[in-house]
Amino acid sequence: MAWPSRSASLAGNVLDAAVEYKHGAAVHDLEKIQQSAEKMWLAVSHAADQYITGQGQLVSGYIAQRLDRLRFLGERNLAGRLASAGANLHELCFLNGECEGIDLDLEEACELVQDLTGERGYCDSLRRILKGESTTTD
């Protein structure tokens, strides 16, 4: 049995987070919205880990170590965006239930995943999902 590539898995997680957010927002289900934020945070974390290991650095499961590694690599911009995604998606929305404007955070996190992985294309699909447009041709 062939396993999906890590990249395909990341793209799937990003799009799953958008769909879950859209469903949760439609019925005002805070738990679904929180779950969508956490799915996106996990996709961001995995993309950061993939980027860091691709640069020959060891990976830690802790955000502070991820930030340190990115800064060590001279990627202060990526580190700042990672810190913002962690604060907004994981801490504020998922842990504290403060999810106002999380759709914008999902978009920004998607862009971060793309920048970390070098892949392009699925943020357009995420935006269409968030806008309620059909994605059947994706």
Shape: globular
Level of helix content? Answer: over 70%
Return the string of H and E elements: HHHHHH
Q: State the distance separating the first and last CA atoms.
A: 24 Å
pLDDT averaged residue by residue: 89
The number of distinct helices, counting runs of at least 4 residues, comes to 6
Sequence stretches where pLDDT stays below 50 over 5 or more residues: 1-5
Provide the gyration radius in Å: 15 Å
Count of distinct strands: 0
Q: How would you describe this protein?
A:
By secondary structure, the protein is an all-alpha fold. It has one domain. The protein has 6 helices and no strands. Helix 1 (6-26) runs antiparallel to helix 2 (30-54), helix 2 packs parallel to helix 3 (63-72) and helix 2 packs antiparallel against helix 4 (76-95). The radius of gyration is 15 Å and the shape is globular. Mean pLDDT is 89; it is low at 1-5.
Tags for this entry?
138 residues; mainly alpha; disordered N terminus
Break the fold down into its secondary structure elements and pairings.
Elements: H1 6-26, H2 30-54, H3 63-72, H4 76-95, H5 102-117, H6 122-131
Summary?
The chain has 138 residues and is mainly α. The protein is built from six helices and no strands.
